[in-house]
Amino acid sequence: MILARGFPGIAFTEVNDGDLRHDMVARRTVSDTLGIPHGWAVANQVHGSHIAIARSAGNVGEADGIVTSVTMLPIAVSVADCVPVVLLGTCSVAVVHAGWRGVASGVVGCALRAMDDSGDRVQGAVIGPHIGPCCFEVGSEVVDAVGGYATRTSNGTLSVDLASAIRDQLVGVEIESEVECTMHDDRFYSHRRNATKERQMAVAWISQD
């Protein structure tokens, strides 16, 4: 498990933590380690840009981002190459699932607006482990959809830098990035590596004062 440096209330799980979407025993273990409730708010992720508001634990429906202002309510998204992003406000927190389709549809900006609409303002962001441009081989249509950010994989094929695209949607926000590439780092699940159906999770919460 990775704890964000300098940002309390954020964790990124790893393979050794299990698939916390379905393994409730593993989720309780992680929750106990982090000192948070066992009940989390999660979503049915569809690679879109809808942001849900969570007021209690459970499934918030179809969404690729969750915002909460409830103290000690864990909110989480699952990933296996896509980019997990956590946004921290003064009185709320958001988690975002940002694959290339989500980046293209502006899901991070939608989360920023959802926090603004709630009367909060984003103070910081953490970009979690995801497939790096070193391994993310794509076609030109993906580069066009994301709006550029073309680069090359370690094999010289076309790639796109999703993290850079996300950073440019967070102008003026302090950003911390975890640089691990999920595809070539076997501490993480990677759909590109072996078509796994298992996922790691990014979980965030507002700590009690």
Give a description of the structure.
It is globular, with a radius of gyration of 16 Å. The protein has one domain (2-204): CNF1/YfiH-like putative cysteine hydrolases (4-Layer Sandwich). With 209 residues, it is of the alpha+beta class. The chain has helices at residues 24-34, 100-104, 107-117, 140-146, 162-168, 191-194; strands at 2-3, 10-12, 41-44, 51-53, 58-62, 65-68, 75-79, 83-89, 93-98, 122-127, 150-152, 158-160, 174-177, 200-204. The strands form 4 sheets. A 6-stranded mixed sheet has the order 4-6-9-8-10-13. The chain has 6 helices and 14 strands. A hairpin with a 5-residue loop joins strand 11 (150-152) and strand 12 (158-160). It starts with a strand and ends in a 5-residue tail after the last strand.
Which features would summarize this protein structure in a list?
209 residues; alpha+beta; CNF1/YfiH-like putative cysteine hydrolases; 6-stranded mixed beta sheet; 6 helices; 14 strands; 22% helix; globular
